[in-house]
Amino acid sequence: MLTPSYVIRNYSPDDFERFMEFLNDAYMDMYFPDRWESAPQFFQQKQGFPGYSPEKHLFLADWKGKIVGYADISPEPQIGRVILNGLVSVYHRREGVANKMMKSTLARAAKLGFKIAHVCVSEKNAAARGLLSGAGFSAVRHLHELEIGLKDMPEEDFDWGTLEISSLLPGEEALLTQAQNRCFTGTWGFCPNTVEEVVYYFSLTGSTPKDVLVAKEEERIVGYCWTNLIVGWGKRNVQKKGRVHMLGVDPDYRRKGIGKNLLKAGLYYLKRREADAVELTADKGNADAYALYRSLGFQMKSVNLWYEKRLK
């Protein structure tokens, strides 16, 4: 049962320093032994995302003036969905805090008019899965985290295909937005992008248009591979890890080898940037894409489950 000393409330700008302290402590202990990225930096970047308001979408668990947990709503009004995320300090679990925050975020999402809530958790996180099941969520999708090492990957005899593959140019954000929406509209969980959102992604630290490799026919982007390089501090030295955020091919151009060429181009691009390995997320329900990743040597790293709850 939640004790009276815990208060669940909305975030306010005055909470910023204490919230950063909580994120630093919690994520350092739990998720970032090699510090691939900074949780506080992620929050600072998210504050500027179009349509997101911490005061409206972020709840905090306050214990005697100390922040010990949070629950967050990422709104996607175009498809009537919110994505929930959250964390409770290991020292304050089993006190009903997570359950109380879940109820607060779901109530807020319903009040804002959203129809569906999604949450992504690790298959191994039994506590989170139990919490979600108890709150009426059901597991609806399996996503696999795959990884490939780049150390021994050759580049010499690669056939780049007939279409030109090059980096996205500054000012082509609208072309990329149109391509993304053509590639993914109708697929599970995809929320159509806006040019404003794409421009914002490129404003984040370490993100530039040149990290997006595109295949063009005249002035039309018919496929793209969006990459990112993350510099982390390992136990002994600086490490570099690559990630493929999105790989898409226009429906009119599929089954021509474009996706495979783009993915290879992305891997070689990251290798030239000295990435040691590359990760990506694969929906096992997408058999063609999953087979492509495995054919190039990607190996299973972990499994995440997407849970769903209807709000109306």
Describe the fold and architecture.
By secondary structure, the chain is an alpha+beta fold. The chain folds into two domains: 109 residues, Gcn5-related N-acetyltransferase (GNAT) (Aminopeptidase, 3-Layer(aba) Sandwich), CATH 3.40.630; 124 residues, Gcn5-related N-acetyltransferase (GNAT) (Aminopeptidase). 31% of the residues lie in helices and 33% in strands. The chain is globular. About 2% of the residues have low confidence.
Secondary-structure element sequence?
EHHHEEEHEHEEHHEEEHEHE
Shape type: globular
What is the number of strand segments?
A: 12
Main sheet characteristics = 12 strands, mixed
Mind telling me the C-alpha Rg? 21 Å
CATH superfamily of the largest domain: Gcn5-related N-acetyltransferase (GNAT)
Broad CATH class of the largest domain: Alpha Beta
Low-confidence stretches: 31-36
Mean pLDDT figure: 88
Number of domains: 2
Helix-strand category: alpha+beta
Total number of helical segments? 9
Defining traits:
12 strands, Aminopeptidase, alpha+beta, 31% helix, twelve-stranded mixed sheet, 33% strand
